[in-house]
């Protein structure tokens, strides 16, 4: 019997190598609003969160809401940069090919962003009809809502579901959902992922297939 009935992948940083691209564009955006943060502070405050929650943090830092035209410009620049520069995470296609149980994506990004990144990397067809966004639920990560939505829609019990995440907020969300979380080391190190509750961590996708079995 398989160890899990469902594998839920985060998108950014796990399926597509997009975190640094998005962080660079978002950093430029918030500097224009008066919030100048280090890369470490950017990771701590924003990594793994949906855009609406990131904007609330920026508003708290600057004391004002981003103008609508500035936000529209950010989204356009973000999606253009992603389409031009995003690549699949090394080894992810082999992992997906090897899986013998259903899988899906549950991301803090919106559907337009997922279409842009998955389309640009040629991975969209592997997830068509199995994309879930935190924009569909009341609370984004670190709340468990989007993972629970994905499990419900895919017909899997949380206790029989694995989550693959690269952010503290994602790990916290997966644990809160009652799922087994595998932490992928990227912008966040192994110790921090384990401290957030990751069942185990790994540094390259080639390791994941064996861990899931």
Please describe what this structure looks like.
By secondary structure, this protein is an alpha/beta fold. The protein has helices spanning 19-31, 39-46, 51-62, 68-85, 92-98, 111-121, 124-127, 145-154, 168-176, 190-195, 208-212, and strands at residues 6-9, 103-107, 131-133, 161-165, 180-184, 200-202. Strands 3-2-1-4-5-6 form a 6-stranded parallel beta sheet. Strand 5, helix 10 and strand 6 (200-202) form a beta-alpha-beta unit. Helix 4 (68-85) runs parallel beside helix 6. The protein is globular, with a radius of gyration of 16 Å. The relative contact order is 0.18. The mean pLDDT is 93.
In N-to-C order, the SSE pattern is EHHHHHEHHEHEHEHEH
* Largest sheet data: 6 strands, parallel
- On the 0 to 100 scale, the average pLDDT is 93
Strand percentage, roughly?
5-15%
Gyration radius (Cα, Å) is 16 Å
Please count the beta strands (DSSP E, at least 2 residues each).
6
Q: What is the rounded distance between the termini? A: 10 Å
Task: Give the uncertain stretches in residue-range form.
Answer: none
Strand order of the largest sheet: 3-2-1-4-5-6
Category from helices, strands and their pairing? alpha/beta
Number of helices: 11
Query: Shape from CA axes?
Result: globular
Helix content: 40-55%
């Amino acid at each position: 019997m398989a160890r899990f009935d469902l594998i839920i992948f985060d998108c950014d940083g796990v399926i597509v190598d997009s975190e640094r691209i998005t962080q660079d564009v978002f950093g430029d955006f918030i500097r224009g609003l008066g919030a100048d943060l280090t890369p470490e502070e950017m990771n701590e405050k924003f990594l793994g969160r949906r855009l609406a929650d990131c904007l609330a943090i920026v508003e708290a830092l600057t004391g004002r809401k981003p103008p609508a035209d500035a936000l529209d410009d950010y989204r356009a620049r973000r999606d253009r940069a992603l389409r031009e520069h995003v690549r699949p995470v090394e080894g992810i296609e082999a992992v997906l090919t090897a899986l013998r149980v259903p899988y899906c994506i549950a991301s803090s990004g919106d559907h337009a962003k997922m279409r842009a990144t998955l389309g640009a990397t040629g991975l969209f067809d592997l997830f068509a009809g199995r994309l879930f966004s935190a924009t569909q639920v009341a609370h984004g990560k670190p709340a468990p809502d989007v993972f629970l939505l994905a499990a419900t829609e895919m017909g899997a019990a949380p206790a029989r579901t694995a989550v693959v995440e690269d952010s503290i907020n994602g790990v916290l969300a997966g644990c809160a959902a009652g799922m087994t979380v595998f932490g992928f080391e990227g912008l966040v190190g192994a110790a921090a992922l384990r401290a957030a509750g990751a069942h185990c961590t790994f540094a390259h996708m080639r390791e994941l297939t064996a861990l899931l079995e």
